[in-house]
Design a protein that fits this description.
The chain has one domain. Helix content is 73%, strand content 1%. The protein is built from 14 helices and 2 strands. It has a two-stranded antiparallel ribbon. A hairpin with a 2-residue loop joins strand 1 and strand 2. The longest helix is centred in the middle third of the chain and has 26 residues.
Length: 306
């Protein structure tokens, strides 16, 4: 079976599983390496993979100043977002952080496209966020702060990734590779020292590389392959399942059993993602391959995972 014969839904399932399987392994790695040290291992190992695979410096060498600044900003946001994400999942259940992560997606859609459907999506998301915050804020205020900081950075990442995806000067995947290298440079002064303890621990090094591949390589590539063949409406519906996927992985891998209120909150946010749509969406909007490769995609926007 060649790549064209692989069902796009299989690509999506692969992306969804690895998108949160990597972070769940990272949580287990926290016992050996400090939180920011794990973030550094993830970013550095993913940057190495993209460097060996794509050699992005060849693509960015002739770019103009504006595009280079865009990639630098993207890389800096990527570094900060990963750090905040890991600080959040060190304190909160993975499913809760995943649900909060999707709030900017819904808010951006509701602000940009004022329809009754998106108003309902925003209402569901707000209700879900309230339910989650009501559960977690008193017990883990710092974790909740990191989760919302990650969500805000996620929204910024969406904007920057979308600009790179539309930039004719560089392909999205090469831009992603360049941004990952920049992120590795940006995060090193802050987090490399926390990863130092792993350098004498081969198991920790191997696990950190595995986290980087699971979290920042496999999901992004398979997500692009899925988006090339799925309509926007189909992909939107599937993306709504991601918070539930995170919750299930949290239960299976981390034994993080959610409360009834947390389950309600995750379900409301997932419902908001499923309901929201772009105004120009139709059933065939993305049936043909997009004009360029781009970073990790979401309904009507583009995204990467922490």
């Amino acid at each position: 079976m060649n790549r064209r014969q692989v069902p796009p839904q299989l690509y999506f399932v692969t992306s969804a599983v690895f998108h949160y399987l990597g972070p769940s392994f990272a949580v287990l790695l926290f016992a050996r390496v400090a939180v920011l040290g794990v973030a550094w291992l993830r970013i550095a190992s993913a940057a190495l993979v993209f460097a060996l695979w794509r050699k992005p410096w060849r693509a960015v060498g002739g770019l103009d100043g504006a595009t280079r600044r865009l990639l630098i900003g993207w890389g800096a946001v990527l570094a900060a977002m990963n750090c905040c994400f890991y600080e959040a999942i060190a304190r909160l259940p993975l499913g809760t952080v995943a649900a909060i992560e999707f709030l900017p997606v819904i808010v951006l859609a509701a602000i940009g496209v004022r329809t009754s459907r998106n108003a309902l999506a925003l209402a569901l998301a707000v209700a879900g966020a309230y339910e989650l915050s009501h559960v977690q804020l008193a017990a883990q205020p710092l974790g909740f702060a990191f989760a919302f900081a990650n969500a805000a950075l996620f929204a910024t990442y969406i904007v920057l990734a979308h600009r790179v995806a539309r930039d004719p000067a560089v392909s999205g995947i090469d831009g992603l590779g360049a941004a990952m290298l920049i992120a590795a440079v940006a995060v090193t002064p802050v987090a490399a020292s926390q990863a130092a303890q792993a350098f004498s621990d081969p198991v920790a090094i191997a696990a950190g590389i595995g986290v980087g591949i699971c979290s920042s390589v496999i999901p992004y590539v398979t997500d692009q392959l899925a988006m090339a063949h799925l309509s926007r409406s189909a992909y939107s519906l599937m993306v709504s399942l991601l918070p539930a996927v995170a919750t299930v992985i949290g239960i299976v891998v981390l034994t993080q059993l959610p409360t009834a209120a947390e389950l309600v909150g995750v379900a409301l946010v997932a419902g908001g993602v499923a309901v929201h749509r772009d105004v120009d969406e139709d059933a065939t909007a993305l049936q043909t391959p997009p004009p360029k490769e781009y970073g990790r995609a979401i309904p009507g926007k583009w995204r990467e995972r922490a």
